[in-house]
Design goal:
This protein is α/β, with parallel strands linked by helices. Helices cover 43% and strands 22% of the residues. An 8-stranded mixed sheet has the order 3-4-2-5-1-6-7-8, sandwiched between helices. It has a 4-stranded antiparallel sheet with strand order 9-10-15-14. The protein has a 3-stranded antiparallel sheet with strand order 11-12-13. Strand 6, helix 8 and strand 7 form a beta-alpha-beta unit. Helix 3 packs antiparallel against helix 7. It is globular. It binds adenosine-5'-triphosphate and magnesium ion.
Length: 420
Amino acid sequence: MSVGNAASAPNGGAQQADSGGSGLRILLFTGKGGVGKSTVAAGTAALAAAGGQRTLVLSTDAAHSLADAFGCAPGTIGAEPTEVADRLFVQQVDAQLRFEQSWAEIQRYLLSVLDVAGLDPVAAEELTVIPGAEEVLALLELRLQALSGAWDVIVVDCAPTAETLRLLALPEALGWYMHRVLPVERRVVKALRPVLSRAAGVPMPGDTVFDALERLYAELMEVRELLSGPDASVRIVLTPENVVLAEARRSYTTLSLYGYRVDGVVANRVFPADGADDWRAGWVVAQDEVLQRVEESFAGLPIWRSAYRPGEPVGVETLTEVARSLYDGADPLAAATSRGPFRVTAGEQSTVLRLALPLVTRTEVHLARTGEDLVVTVGSYRRLLTLPSGLARHRIAGARVEQGELQVRFVEDPVDEAGG
Ligand SMILES: Nc1ncnc2c1ncn2[C@@H]1O[C@H](COP(=O)(O)OP(=O)(O)OP(=O)(O)O)[C@@H](O)[C@H]1O
Ligand SMILES: [Mg+2]
């Protein structure tokens, strides 16, 4: 973690922010609603800044509770990074604005088509809004900030679990469309445009619509690369309650499925055991049981604990203190040691693809093969893994889940060989 020219003003430097080994540490905090994501994200950022890092904490969540956590007056923190303490900047991304900037062109085209189709403009407007897309586009801000070279650390306060997970997968899903469908569509549209727009009165998408889509896609892929890269990691925040743990376990699996590194778990609002009355003693016992299961579920990961405080932790000082006792002397910015997204090992007889996939059994995983993609489905989450070219002519010979890892065995396809 280089401190670099820590004193220089953000956005001032024209430093190169090359992906991979640029020294920029990215931390994401996710978890069920209300467990303390914003508090812990803000605290971690405050601690990093206190330690000399140029730190930005940004929220992509429309609820924007960062300003509340820092105890800032309404309106003082906006869509641009605002300094709240030495080296500590807060930004609440205006998702709506970003959405308009990135999606407007594509939306205009869709609206014009729906208009020709005779749809009521208000209904048409509704149709062209993708639920959840705003938060993805808010992540584009992360890309800009990473590229600015102004930061040593960027902390992201994410929206509650399910959305975040779904959104993080979007670039990959889009990628499939971009690589397979779009080029064809673009050619077809190009050939048909003069004929069709005259005949049917349907406006055909101009090249600018495709360009806008391609640009958006390229930027989203960069975001994904940043977030799944070696300098980024995700921390799951939970409170010691069974329903919360159940969701945290699911998100651990899903984050792994999508190739994100989970490098720790924050157990927040843990009741202190000392001097307890009967009511609190009851809670301490109940929480202990869940915490035991937390340890088992996330074996191998650090479990950081944060006490239930007598009041809401608000303000830079209190948040720093929360983070200090949370990490308890450990480096909050330590690089994630977990393995990368997926690995391929070639053996004599077969080649094995390994993907970290904790907390699932083989029966919960569905595998399919489409062309050069391996489609892995767990519950309602699906990932398309583009196979290395060496595996293109191989078929799946078997799969198993062992010690939190999905292992898919490939063998060379004899039919394909015979066919030349
Ligand atoms: N350790 C703690 N002790 C006492 N209060 C806490 C603690 N952690 C968080 N809180 C309080 O709990 C409330 C919810 O915390 P926070 O806003 O950080 O949760 P969140 O997960 O970001 O919520 P949301 O899902 O709505 O974004 C806040 O009022 C916060 O001050
Ligand atoms: Mg929050």
